[in-house]
Specification:
Number of strands: 9
Strand order of the largest sheet: 4-5-7-6
Strand content: 5-15%
Number of helices: 6
Helix content: 10-25%
Radius of gyration: 20 Å
Oligomer: single chain
Low-confidence stretches: 165-201
Largest sheet: 4 strands, antiparallel
């Protein structure tokens, strides 16, 4: 990793991606519901909700579970970094993204798009399956991490007792979705370029991550999706 501060990952981001969540808090090992499902950006550590008194004035990020892996809400993630082209999923009526790639038992063959970093099958027009995969690709391309990180001075937890407080591992993967209404900043960027016939290079453009040959397919995919209509019904031929 380069020594330039603009290319290095901040301490909180390195800790977030390497931390183990949902283990029992050793400080409150005798308390109920003591799993460490909160990340303190100022202390760079995982804590449980019994630890909150010592972190009241800190930036706190709620960690959730989706299909037995760590996720965060898209809304929280976008306060911290550029999450464009990271595939989002729906669980408990909330959009979430994975922190790290999930293990794969075999390569995905029936997908029109794969994660650039780990080859997991994705829906168009996504390019990454997790935040970690996007960051790894940026670092491999010698990108400036400072261009993708947002300044966030305040980050608070949802209200205790709300449906958004815990995410269970029983959540179901969102089936086919309208790709023009994806809850991700990628949607805004791509649709804007489609309407203005521009496709400029920026941190939110696919050119920042992938070869031009693959980028050229993205506008045509969106054009096909946007103009998709049902065909005329046809009667089956009589035997």
């Amino acid at each position: 990793m380069e020594s330039s501060s603009s290319q290095r990952l901040p301490a909180w981001l390195e800790s977030l991606l390497s931390e183990t969540f949902f283990n029992a808090c050793m400080v409150h090992e005798d308390a109920k519901k003591n799993e460490k499902n909160i990340f303190c950006l100022d202390c760079c550590e995982a804590i449980c909700h019994h630890c909150l008194d010592l972190h009241n004035s800190h930036r706190l990020l709620q960690i959730r579970r989706y299909v037995y892996h760590d996720v965060i809400r898209v809304g929280d993630a976008e306060k911290l970094m550029d999450c464009s082209y990271v595939q989002a999923y729906t669980t408990n009526s909330a959009k979430v993204v994975f922190l790290n790639p999930r293990p794969q038992t075999r390569a995905c063959r029936n997908s029109s798009s794969n994660c650039i970093s780990c080859e997991r099958g994705l829906q168009d027009p996504y390019l990454f399956c997790s935040i970690s995969c996007k960051i790894n690709q940026i670092m491999r391309n010698n990108g400036m991490m400072s261009e993708y990180l947002h300044k966030c001075e305040v980050l608070t937890l949802p209200e205790p007792g709300s449906d958004d407080w815990f995410m269970t591992p029983d959540s179901v993967f969102e089936p086919s979705v309208d790709r023009l209404t994806i809850a991700c900043t990628a949607t805004t960027e791509i649709v804007r370029r489609k309407r203005t016939s521009k496709f400029e290079i920026s941190p939110a453009s696919p050119e920042a991550y992938i070869p031009a040959a693959r980028v050229a397919n993205i506008p045509s995919v969106l054009e096909t999706i946007g103009n998709r209509r049902k065909g005329m019904p046809r009667r089956s031929p009589f035997n």
